[in-house]
Amino acid sequence: MLTAKEKHSDLFIIDANALCYRAFFALPALTNTKGMPTGAIYGFVNMLNKFLEGGKYGYIAACFDVSRDTFRQRKFSDYKIQRPKMPDDLVNQLTIIKKILAAFNISIFEYQGYEADDLIATLCKKSVEEGLNVKILTADKDLLQLISSKVSIIIPHKEKNILYDEKEVLNRFGVSPKLIPEVIALMGDATDNIPGVKGIGEKTAISLIKQYDNIENLLENIDSLKPQRVADLIKKDTNILNLSRELVELEDCVPLDFNLRDLELKTPNYKELFDIYKELEFRTFLKDLPIKDDELSNLNIAVNKESTKGYDKLRELIFISTPDNDSNYNFYTFIDENNIFKTDSPERLKSLFENVDINKIGFDLKQEFKVSNKLKFNINGKIFDVMIAAYLIDSSKTDFSLGGLIYDYLGLTVRNASPEKNLVLIARLYEVLRKKIEENNMESLFYDIEMPLVKILAKMEINGIALDLKLINSLSKDIEYKINGLENEIFTNASKKFNLNSPKQLAVILFQELGLPVIKRGKTGPSTNEFVLKQLSKDYKIAKLILEYRHLIKLKTGYIDSLPELVDKNTNRIHAYFNQVGTETGRLSMNNPNLQNIPIKTDISSQLRKAFVPKNKEDFIVSCDYSQIELRILAHMSKDKELTQAFKNGEDVHLHTAGLIYGVDKKNITADMRNVAKRINFAIVYGMSAYGLSQDLEINQDAAQSFIDTYFIKYNGVKEFIEKQIEFAKNNGFVTTIFGRKRFIREINSQNKSLREFSQRQAINSPIQGSSADIIKIAMINIDKEFDKEQLLSKMILQIHDELLFEVNNKELDLVKRIARDRMENVFKLDVPIKIDIKIGKNWLDA
After folding, report:
1. Are 581 and 400 in contact (CB under 8 A)?
2. Distance between CA 535 and CA 543 in Å, rounded?
3. Taking Cα atoms as reference points, which of 803, 734, 816 lies closest to residue 772?
4. Which of 19, 190, 569, 577 gives a 20 to 30 Å CA spacing to 737?
5. Contacts of 521 (CB under 8 A, 6+ apart)
């Protein structure tokens, strides 16, 4: 942030109206938790911060429109008439943006009867006369006419901001900045409804002005103008041309009352900005302000060395661990705000943490379980993880960091707080979140499912999985060979070499040089995304080859080359991270590596699974996969009689659906018909539209709609369930799983059709997918208990959606199979049977 001491002889003018519009339409409809629209404010402040940091200015000003009633409307009533009224959500945000500018100590200019552009022109003229250089931040090219040796314009752009000076304007338009109004007057401007001369476009307008210098000279020489057609067009619209010229030219003599001292850049009022950002919930901007919350900064805590005083009566222990310099961990333990203990005695830690009568409270306790494993003690007793509690209360949040939770639930902004202060804040979070868990009737979901899972995931991360590095190395060579072969084949089909990883070059080859049909266009030209290539691959070999090339490149860079680097040198295993708060539905996610996303359709990707093996050659990898669990949950939640009976009868539900939608006997159903039925079954679960199904099945939309209509006739209970889910979400703003997990669906009543339809799909799928996630979590907890009870050497190592993977000691194989089947199939009583498929092998592929 700049201060007045760093003044330079530059004036920075902000075209506030134009930037507010740009931010409003460029960003999604952001709101804070109170429902206040904030998207335009956030975008505006983000741009402002970047430019204040990017240049040193001595003076600064911001200009706004007042209303549409300006001198231009009085000259031409249709001026800007086609522009819609400013949206109410933007009007409300403008008020706050002005407050923010005032807190920055930036002078605001607005004047009835004039546009912001005129105010900017006036400020420019007076400032240049005073010897200043001027930079204008705008999204409006109408201001290009102001550019001179002393004035330049910055137009913000997503990738790289565009700087317009005299040279750049000349390169772009072929005329100097002062002649821009002459060009616009001739060609017109649809954005501002400036009529111009009908029939004259940009190219002709530029040519005429380059020849005659201005409109006055052009009209004086109109009789000698060639071609005659252009002369006739101008003669016909001479009055409109003169009017257009008057509308385009900016007024630089607006009677503004100011002097340069008023515009001097001053130190912002950080306290005022802090209060505004806090109300708006702009956490990112709050962190950048050189100010702290009074409450937090005044929190002085004494840290005592380890003491036995008070420990005997402990019932709740709030703690946080930090590694010291030599990697022996220190635990800070909290009793109350006057009693923080720094505990590094292994004996004391063991007695505290293994005491089942003491509740354990902390943030991201999975890491603490891993630390306790290193220190050779257990964490017993009831646990409360504030991070996961916040996740259950609202899984749609994007930030579950400690600082994020402290801000969201305590209203405090934290920067590099000491462990002691964090402990106090965790204690306060615990009180707030414990009550919210109770108010939302989530005690069972939290204490019986999510909290026991923390320890299991810590175990799984510690266990890891072994990797056959020799096989990986062999696969790397194979895939390199195939990629090189594909490259050569593609270049042969294209009759030239080019950069296969450049979408721009690929588009030129496919659509210009080879003449393939353009399926879809993006902002920069014809698209070459996966959807487009799939469509083209039906008729063009080169598209099919490029798809295969991209798949192999993704596999090579994403897995085959990176997996060996993730092998821990001490354990010779990969230790992936399981994220318990990474999805809105309740499913687990994972990274480093993300093994949930390994493709399965090609030979190479299948062989990749072969590289995941047990540590000991005599042991086994066992896969236990829920069979059609989401469709079984759909049958349970919808109470559809047809679907429920099919599962009770032990039928192949996809075959059953195929019989219903095709109206044929099951013995006459082909593999293709069953595949279509399978896709329709899952399309319904995911709330897919007729359009989406038509794309998936590669059929026309009418045929897809016919399939869906028939499906709902046969499974009318499913149709009723879907309608009820959408209605519930509309009325309540959320949906729930069988076990009470909530997912907020905030855009279900949006005026934006695409947002509304997407929300409806979420309302249908979330209860089903979330219930599936809950079921497999309960199964994991029950299996883990049995493994501990039997003191098995076998380990649970991966959870991939509806599949659990085990590394099984060869002597325990039958027992593990029995435990897994019992605990997974009897996890919860649905209206239909729950079934799993068990596969056994010497690697993940065989399993």
Report:
1. yes
2. 9
3. 803
4. 577
5. 527
Q: What is the pLDDT of residues 623-634, one digit of tens each?
A: 999 999 999 999
Q: Determine the Cα–Cα distance for residues 529 and 536; give it in Å rounded to an integer.
A: 11
| Whether pLDDT at 258 is above 60 | yes
To the nearest whole percent, how much of the chain has pLDDT over 70? Answer: 92
Residue 2 pLDDT more than 80? no
Q: What is the pLDDT of residue 266?
A: 87
Can you tell me whether residue 567 is helix, strand or coil? strand
- Cα 358 to its chain centre, rounded Å, is 39
Closest CA to 413 of 333, 527, 293, 498: 293
The residue that leads in pLDDT, 445 or 551, is: 445
Task: Classify residue 524 as exposed, middle or buried by CB count within 10 Å of its CB (0-12, 13-18, 19+).
Answer: exposed
Check residue 575 and give left, alpha or beta (phi > 0: left; psi -120 to 50: alpha): beta
Q: How many CB atoms lie within 10 A of CB 530?
A: 12
Instruction: Name every residue whose Cβ is closer than 8 Å to that of residue 386 and which is 6 or more positions away in sequence.
Output: 361, 362, 363, 405, 426, 429, 430, 433
By the 8 A CB rule, do 231 and 223 touch?
yes
DSSP string, 242-289: HHHHHHHSPP--------GGGGB-----HHHHHHHHHHHT-HHHHHHS
CA atoms of 615 and 444, how far apart (whole Å): 37
Per-residue pLDDT of 135-174, as tens digits, reads 999 888 788 989 999 999 988 877 677 889 999 988 888 8
What count of residues does the chain have?
847
| pLDDT the model gives residue 5 | 39
Residue 227: asked if its preceding bond is cis (omega within 30°), the reply is yes
Distance CA 535, CA 379 (A): 55
Write the DSSP string, 816-839.
HHHHHHHHHHTSS--SS---EEEE
Q: What is the pTM of this model?
A: 0.77
Residue 1 is predicted with a pLDDT of: 35
Task: Please name the amino acid found at residue 133.
Answer: N
Instruction: Give phi and psi for 200, each to the nearest 5.
Output: -110, 125
Whether 239 has a pLDDT exceeding 80, the answer reads: yes
**H or E segment at 601?**
none
> Which residue, 392, 439, 395, 390, is CA-closest to 410?
390
Look at residue 100 and tell me whether its pLDDT is greater than 50: yes
Q: Write the DSSP string, 402-433.
A: HHHHHHHHH----SS--HHHHHHHHHHHHHHH
How do beta strands 589-591 and 577-579 pair? Answer: antiparallel
Q: How far is CA 198 from the centre of its chain?
A: 46
pLDDT tens digits along 388-420: 999 999 998 888 999 889 988 988 887 778 888
723 CB neighbour count, 10 Å cutoff:
12
Percent of the residues in the chain that have a pLDDT greater than 90, as a whole number: 48
For position 442, what pLDDT does the model report? 96
CA gap 826, 819 in Å, rounded = 10
Q: How is residue 11 written in tokens? A: 């004036």
Spatial distance between the Cα atoms of 807 and 463, rounded to a whole number of angstroms: 10
H or E stretch covering 1: none
d(CA 379, CA 366): 11
Letter for the amino acid at 784? Answer: D
**Could you give the CA distance from residue 762 to residue 768 in angstroms, rounded to a whole number?**
10
User: Which pLDDT score, from 0 to 100, does residue 45 have?
Assistant: 93
Question: How far, in Å, are 40, 80, 183, 201 from residue 190 at the CA level?
Answer: 25, 9, 14, 12
Q: What is the pLDDT of residues 287-339, one digit of tens each?
A: 788 776 666 666 667 666 665 555 666 788 888 888 765 557 778 887 676 77
What do you get for the CA distance between the two ends of the chain, in Å?
59
451: left (phi over 0), alpha (psi -120 to 50) or beta: alpha
Structure tokens given for 518 = 């353009």
Please state the separation of Cα 639 from the chain's center in Å: 35
